[in-house]
Amino acid sequence: MEQYGTILLVEDDESLAQWVADYLNNQGYTTECCYRGDQVVSMVKQHDPDLVLLDIMLPGQDGISVCRELRQFYNKPIIMLTAKDEEMDEVIGLEVGASDYVIKPVRPRALLARIKANMRVAQDNDAGTDTNAVMLNVGNLRIDTQARKVIVADQEVNVSSAEYLLLHFLASNAGEVVSRDAVFKATKGREYDGLDRSVDVLISALRKKFGDDPQNPEKIKTIWGKGYLLVPSAW
Protein backbone atom coordinates (compact mmCIF):
# COMPACT_ATOMS: atom_id res chain seq x y z
CA MET A 1 0.00 0.00 0.00
CA GLU A 2 1.22 3.50 -0.85
CA GLN A 3 2.25 5.51 2.19
CA TYR A 4 0.88 9.07 2.41
CA GLY A 5 2.64 10.39 5.51
CA THR A 6 2.91 10.14 9.26
CA ILE A 7 0.33 11.31 11.77
CA LEU A 8 0.58 11.80 15.52
CA LEU A 9 -2.85 11.24 17.07
CA VAL A 10 -3.26 12.75 20.54
CA GLU A 11 -6.37 11.38 22.25
CA ASP A 12 -6.81 10.23 25.85
CA ASP A 13 -9.60 7.77 25.00
CA GLU A 14 -7.37 4.84 24.11
CA SER A 15 -10.11 2.77 22.45
CA LEU A 16 -11.13 5.70 20.25
CA ALA A 17 -7.51 6.50 19.47
CA GLN A 18 -6.83 2.91 18.42
CA TRP A 19 -9.97 2.83 16.26
CA VAL A 20 -8.99 6.06 14.47
CA ALA A 21 -5.37 4.91 14.13
CA ASP A 22 -6.44 1.59 12.58
CA TYR A 23 -8.65 3.43 10.11
CA LEU A 24 -5.89 5.86 9.10
CA ASN A 25 -3.32 3.07 8.84
CA ASN A 26 -5.68 1.23 6.50
CA GLN A 27 -5.86 4.39 4.38
CA GLY A 28 -2.09 4.44 3.91
CA TYR A 29 -0.90 6.62 6.78
CA THR A 30 1.55 5.70 9.52
CA THR A 31 -0.13 6.66 12.78
CA GLU A 32 1.44 7.02 16.22
CA CYS A 33 -0.77 7.50 19.29
CA CYS A 34 -0.19 9.68 22.34
CA TYR A 35 -2.57 9.67 25.29
CA ARG A 36 -1.27 12.58 27.39
CA GLY A 37 -0.83 16.24 26.60
CA ASP A 38 2.44 16.58 28.46
CA GLN A 39 4.08 13.99 26.20
CA VAL A 40 3.20 15.58 22.87
CA VAL A 41 6.06 18.03 22.44
CA SER A 42 8.74 15.40 23.03
CA MET A 43 7.01 12.98 20.63
CA VAL A 44 6.76 15.61 17.91
CA LYS A 45 10.44 16.48 18.31
CA GLN A 46 11.33 12.79 18.17
CA HIS A 47 9.13 11.68 15.25
CA ASP A 48 8.52 14.95 13.30
CA PRO A 49 5.09 13.82 11.99
CA ASP A 50 3.58 15.30 8.84
CA LEU A 51 0.42 16.20 10.75
CA VAL A 52 -0.82 16.27 14.36
CA LEU A 53 -4.38 15.38 15.34
CA LEU A 54 -4.79 17.03 18.72
CA ASP A 55 -7.67 16.62 21.16
CA ILE A 56 -8.37 19.57 23.47
CA MET A 57 -9.32 17.75 26.68
CA LEU A 58 -6.19 15.85 27.72
CA PRO A 59 -4.55 14.75 30.98
CA GLY A 60 -1.24 16.38 31.88
CA GLN A 61 -1.63 19.40 29.57
CA ASP A 62 -4.62 20.65 27.59
CA GLY A 63 -4.57 20.69 23.81
CA ILE A 64 -4.74 24.49 23.53
CA SER A 65 -1.52 25.00 25.48
CA VAL A 66 0.09 22.07 23.64
CA CYS A 67 -0.75 23.68 20.30
CA ARG A 68 0.68 27.01 21.46
CA GLU A 69 3.90 25.29 22.53
CA LEU A 70 4.18 23.27 19.32
CA ARG A 71 3.88 26.39 17.18
CA GLN A 72 7.15 27.67 18.61
CA PHE A 73 8.99 25.15 16.40
CA TYR A 74 6.51 23.02 14.40
CA ASN A 75 5.12 24.44 11.12
CA LYS A 76 3.21 21.44 9.78
CA PRO A 77 -0.59 21.04 10.05
CA ILE A 78 -2.27 20.71 13.43
CA ILE A 79 -5.93 19.67 13.38
CA MET A 80 -7.78 20.16 16.66
CA LEU A 81 -10.44 17.70 17.77
CA THR A 82 -13.19 19.70 19.52
CA ALA A 83 -16.40 18.77 21.28
CA LYS A 84 -19.63 19.47 19.43
CA ASP A 85 -20.80 23.10 19.63
CA GLU A 86 -17.77 24.21 21.65
CA GLU A 87 -17.24 27.26 19.46
CA MET A 88 -14.88 28.93 21.92
CA ASP A 89 -12.50 25.96 21.70
CA GLU A 90 -12.45 26.32 17.93
CA VAL A 91 -11.76 30.06 18.13
CA ILE A 92 -8.98 29.70 20.71
CA GLY A 93 -7.47 26.77 18.82
CA LEU A 94 -7.21 28.82 15.63
CA GLU A 95 -5.82 31.79 17.53
CA VAL A 96 -2.97 29.73 19.00
CA GLY A 97 -2.04 28.22 15.66
CA ALA A 98 -4.29 25.29 14.76
CA SER A 99 -4.57 24.75 11.01
CA ASP A 100 -8.08 23.35 11.16
CA TYR A 101 -10.53 21.62 13.47
CA VAL A 102 -12.81 18.58 13.39
CA ILE A 103 -15.88 18.30 15.60
CA LYS A 104 -16.45 15.12 17.60
CA PRO A 105 -17.85 12.54 17.30
CA VAL A 106 -15.30 11.81 14.60
CA ARG A 107 -16.67 10.81 11.20
CA PRO A 108 -13.94 8.79 9.47
CA ARG A 109 -14.44 10.04 5.91
CA ALA A 110 -14.76 13.67 7.00
CA LEU A 111 -11.62 13.34 9.11
CA LEU A 112 -9.73 11.75 6.22
CA ALA A 113 -10.82 14.56 3.89
CA ARG A 114 -9.52 17.19 6.33
CA ILE A 115 -6.22 15.36 6.72
CA LYS A 116 -5.71 15.09 2.96
CA ALA A 117 -6.65 18.72 2.40
CA ASN A 118 -4.32 20.06 5.07
CA MET A 119 -1.41 17.90 3.94
CA ARG A 120 -1.97 19.00 0.34
CA VAL A 121 -1.92 22.68 1.30
CA ALA A 122 1.27 22.16 3.34
CA GLN A 123 2.96 20.32 0.46
CA ASP A 124 1.88 22.94 -2.09
CA ASN A 125 3.14 25.70 0.18
CA ASP A 126 6.52 24.01 0.60
CA ALA A 127 6.79 23.36 -3.13
CA GLY A 128 5.99 26.98 -3.90
CA THR A 129 8.70 28.40 -1.68
CA ASP A 130 11.40 28.04 -4.32
CA THR A 131 9.34 29.51 -7.15
CA ASN A 132 7.49 32.37 -5.43
CA ALA A 133 9.05 35.79 -5.03
CA VAL A 134 11.23 35.85 -1.94
CA MET A 135 9.53 39.05 -0.70
CA LEU A 136 5.90 39.96 -1.27
CA ASN A 137 5.37 43.70 -0.78
CA VAL A 138 2.10 45.60 -0.39
CA GLY A 139 2.74 49.13 0.86
CA ASN A 140 4.39 48.80 4.29
CA LEU A 141 3.45 45.13 4.46
CA ARG A 142 6.26 42.75 3.60
CA ILE A 143 5.96 38.97 3.60
CA ASP A 144 9.20 36.99 3.51
CA THR A 145 8.04 33.78 1.85
CA GLN A 146 11.22 31.83 2.60
CA ALA A 147 11.46 32.68 6.28
CA ARG A 148 7.63 32.89 6.55
CA LYS A 149 7.90 36.23 8.33
CA VAL A 150 5.47 39.13 8.26
CA ILE A 151 6.88 42.65 8.61
CA VAL A 152 4.90 45.90 8.83
CA ALA A 153 6.76 49.23 8.88
CA ASP A 154 10.00 47.36 9.66
CA GLN A 155 8.45 45.61 12.68
CA GLU A 156 7.98 41.83 12.63
CA VAL A 157 4.47 40.68 13.49
CA ASN A 158 4.02 37.19 14.92
CA VAL A 159 1.35 35.23 13.08
CA SER A 160 0.24 31.61 13.27
CA SER A 161 0.67 29.23 10.34
CA ALA A 162 -3.02 29.51 9.45
CA GLU A 163 -2.88 33.32 9.68
CA TYR A 164 0.23 33.36 7.50
CA LEU A 165 -1.41 31.29 4.75
CA LEU A 166 -4.50 33.51 4.76
CA LEU A 167 -2.52 36.76 4.77
CA HIS A 168 -0.21 35.53 2.02
CA PHE A 169 -3.17 34.62 -0.19
CA LEU A 170 -4.91 37.95 0.40
CA ALA A 171 -1.69 39.89 -0.21
CA SER A 172 -1.01 37.90 -3.39
CA ASN A 173 -4.40 39.13 -4.60
CA ALA A 174 -4.16 42.65 -3.13
CA GLY A 175 -6.75 45.00 -4.59
CA GLU A 176 -8.97 42.13 -5.74
CA VAL A 177 -12.00 40.68 -3.97
CA VAL A 178 -11.43 36.99 -3.34
CA SER A 179 -14.39 34.74 -2.63
CA ARG A 180 -14.75 32.73 0.55
CA ASP A 181 -14.62 29.57 -1.57
CA ALA A 182 -11.33 30.65 -3.15
CA VAL A 183 -9.88 31.38 0.30
CA PHE A 184 -10.85 27.93 1.57
CA LYS A 185 -9.41 26.17 -1.47
CA ALA A 186 -6.13 28.08 -1.21
CA THR A 187 -5.62 27.88 2.55
CA LYS A 188 -7.44 24.71 3.55
CA GLY A 189 -7.48 22.67 0.35
CA ARG A 190 -11.25 22.23 0.34
CA GLU A 191 -14.45 24.03 -0.57
CA TYR A 192 -16.38 26.16 1.88
CA ASP A 193 -19.13 24.04 3.47
CA GLY A 194 -21.44 26.93 4.34
CA LEU A 195 -20.91 26.57 8.09
CA ASP A 196 -17.20 26.79 8.85
CA ARG A 197 -16.35 30.14 10.49
CA SER A 198 -12.61 29.58 10.77
CA VAL A 199 -11.68 32.13 8.09
CA ASP A 200 -13.73 34.79 9.87
CA VAL A 201 -11.86 33.99 13.09
CA LEU A 202 -8.52 34.33 11.31
CA ILE A 203 -9.55 37.59 9.62
CA SER A 204 -10.53 38.97 13.02
CA ALA A 205 -7.18 37.89 14.51
CA LEU A 206 -5.24 39.52 11.66
CA ARG A 207 -7.15 42.78 12.02
CA LYS A 208 -6.34 42.84 15.72
CA LYS A 209 -2.63 42.28 15.06
CA PHE A 210 -2.50 45.02 12.42
CA GLY A 211 -4.56 47.56 14.37
CA ASP A 212 -7.42 47.43 11.88
CA ASP A 213 -10.69 48.67 13.41
CA PRO A 214 -13.03 45.62 13.46
CA GLN A 215 -16.09 47.88 13.18
CA ASN A 216 -14.71 49.81 10.22
CA PRO A 217 -11.73 47.89 8.81
CA GLU A 218 -9.55 49.61 6.22
CA LYS A 219 -6.77 47.07 5.62
CA ILE A 220 -8.73 43.82 5.29
CA LYS A 221 -12.33 44.34 4.31
CA THR A 222 -15.21 41.89 4.24
CA ILE A 223 -17.25 42.48 1.10
CA TRP A 224 -20.62 41.05 2.04
CA GLY A 225 -21.87 38.44 -0.38
CA LYS A 226 -18.59 38.45 -2.31
CA GLY A 227 -15.60 37.73 -0.09
CA TYR A 228 -12.54 39.55 1.25
CA LEU A 229 -10.33 42.38 0.07
CA LEU A 230 -6.83 43.39 1.17
CA VAL A 231 -6.67 47.12 0.37
CA PRO A 232 -3.15 48.09 -0.87
CA SER A 233 -3.50 51.81 -0.15
CA ALA A 234 -4.32 51.15 3.52
CA TRP A 235 -0.89 49.60 4.15
From TrEMBL:
PROSITE patterns: OMPR_PHOB, RESPONSE_REGULATORY. The keyword Oxidoreductase does not apply. It is found in: Cytoplasm. Residues 133-232 bind DNA. One of its GO terms (cellular component) is cytosol. GO terms for biological process: regulation of DNA-templated transcription. GO terms for molecular function: phosphorelay response regulator activity; transcription cis-regulatory region binding. The modification 4-aspartylphosphate is found at D55. Residues 133-232 form the OmpR/PhoB-type domain. Its main location: cytoplasm. Pfam families: Response_reg, Trans_reg_C. Residues 6-119 form the Response regulatory domain. Keywords: Cytoplasm, DNA-binding, Phosphoprotein, Transcription, Transcription regulation, Two-component regulatory system. This is DNA-binding response regulator. It comes from Pseudoalteromonas rubra.
